[in-house]
Amino acid sequence: MSPPVLHTPRCMITIMTEKDAGWLNTLLNDEGVQHYIEGIRLFSKTVENTTEYIKCMLDAYNHGRGFLWKIMCHENPIGLVNVMDFDENPSLCYALNISYRGRGLMYEALISILSFLSGIEKKVYRCDIDSNNVPSILICNKLKDSFSILVKVV
Fold first, then answer.
1. In percent, how much of the chain has pLDDT > 70?
2. What are the CA-CA distances from residue 23 to residues 95, 117, 121, 133 (Å)?
3. How far apart are CA 4 and CA 70, in angstroms?
4. Tell me: the pLDDT tens digits for 11-26?
5. What is the pLDDT of residues 84-102, one digit of tens each?
6. How far apart are CA 93 and CA 106, in angstroms?
7. What's the CA dihedral at 15, 125, 31, 26 to 10 degrees?
């Protein structure tokens, strides 16, 4: 099965590969990303750690347990959406390059991804959001009206 490619008016969204480790490592080392995504420091220490993270997510994808999406804008990788589909606790997390924040691109990408996922199987995805991350709280509160998202502000 070939990996899905999703399109929004401004973005292309694909499954991340090991070739993406360099730019992803830079994104994961962004101070804002590290502050808001729990446990990401383990994968951001080196490019090799980031490559291992991608390999784990590719294995999850190949076994129907998750997705690590790459968001592209004008052929530049700008962000990620990680969907872990554990039977007992499906979850969603995401990050965007600081230069692209505040433009509605993540909201656009999440609508496309969640629409795709709801076509596969209806699940409720948990999204834990830091109480100081107001943009993410707003995004998820808008999305939960159309999709099955459980927003937990921590």
1. 97
2. 13, 25, 31, 23
3. 11
4. 999 999 999 999 999 9
5. 876 677 889 999 999 999 9
6. 11
7. -10
Residue corresponding to tokens 């609508």: 111
Beta strands in the chain (DSSP E): 6-7, 12-15, 66-73, 76-84, 91-96, 125-129, 149-153
pLDDT average, residue stretch 113-134: 86
Task: Say if CB 68 and CB 62 are below 8 A apart.
Answer: no
Choose among 80, 87, 99: nearest CA to 37.
80
Q: How far apart are CA 147 and CA 145, in angstroms?
A: 6
H or E stretch covering 11: none
Nearest one of 94, 118, 91 to 105, comparing CA atoms: 94
Q: 46: which 2 tokens?
A: 């080196």
